[in-house]
Write a structure and sequence with these properties.
alpha/beta; five-stranded parallel sheet; 5 strands
Length: about 300
């Protein structure tokens, strides 16, 4: 019994040593590569959308020129939501680049009265600067014609926007594009018509298809305004659809169109274009869209 016990303890010791030996091999890796030889994790791919572009160029119409924000029937680019230097607006360029950076690396190529057909020419001028971000706000003047029948056809609006985006992409493959929706013109009419001064300025020819006969509420006037409003909605659908075909384009999701401009956000000269306060609200919308997390 005593000898069997010694033999048994010896067998146990040998087995234990073998087990510990195997465990020890696993601990140092066995057949696995040493830590220095293991494959390093692949670096994360650079996101397509840069939330902090280093330069900004703006194209579009009178809203981006700050028309009637500072004085009657005059551009006021320093109050532009996109590139203006006014501290009251805190433009998109200032928010992204800082005040000194915005002065050196932001450019405004928008033109008061411009329509979508003018966008290709503006884009051609803007790309010469090589901006990392291009802002687009255009379409109101395509709806603001002498009559609803004179409005830009949706098909032509789409074709010109597609051409603009393609030419921009050809010149600047990695440039980003922020596209703002067309404002709700009917809401601007409903707000501005409370101002006698505003209605007098409207008679000078500001958006006659929507603002003409501002106090008329008969069926013909209602149909006219509804027709213009429907065209604006169609334009916004085009902006969204075309932008969606470009992986470096962001549409505002209808935020500008849906924003409820009050009298404080409208020019005290024409009660239609954004005031300095209204320009600041547009800058907020743009900055929120440009800096949002996403692909």
């Amino acid at each position: 019994m005593r000898m069997r016990g010694r033999r048994t303890r010896g067998v146990v010791a040998v087995v234990a040593a073998a087990v510990l030996g195997v465990a020890g091999c696993d601990a140092v890796g066995g057949d696995e590569a040493a830590p220095s030889e293991r494959a390093k994790p692949s670096p994360k791919p650079t996101p397509l959308w840069d939330r902090s572009p280093a330069s900004v160029a703006a194209v579009g119409d009178s809203i981006t020129r700050g028309f009637d924000a500072c004085d009657v029937l005059s551009d006021c680019p320093e109050a532009s939501w996109a590139t203006g230097a006014s501290p009251e607006v805190d433009s998109l360029a200032v928010r992204l680049l800082g005040r000194a950076g915005a002065a050196e690396r932001s450019w405004n190529y928008a033109v008061t009265g411009a329509r979508m057909a003018d966008l290709p020419g503006q884009v051609a001028r803007a790309v010469r600067r090589g901006p990392q971000l291009v802002t687009v706000m255009v379409g109101a003047n395509d709806a603001c014609r002498s009559t609803p029948s004179a409005m830009t056809p949706v098909s032509a609006f789409r074709a010109d926007f597609e051409d603009s985006l393609k030419s921009l992409r050809k010149a600047l493959p990695k440039a980003q594009v922020f596209v703002a929706s067309v404002p709700n013109l009917k809401r601007l009419w409903s707000q501005g018509r409370t101002s006698p001064l505003g209605k007098q300025v409207w008679k000078l020819g500001i958006c006659p298809s929507m603002l003409g006969d501002a106090d008329a509420l008969d069926s013909a006037a209602t149909l006219r305004r509804d027709t213009v409003q429907k065209r604006v909605e169609d334009y916004n659908k085009v902006l969204e659809e075309v932008c969606a075909t470009d992986e470096r384009c962001r549409y505002d999701g209808g935020a500008v169109h849906d924003y409820r401009f009050g009298t404080a956000q409208l020019s005290r000269w024409d009660y239609f274009h954004p005031s300095v306060n209204g320009q600041a609200r547009l800058a907020e919308i743009a900055y929120r869209t440009v800096t949002a997390k996403g692909p």
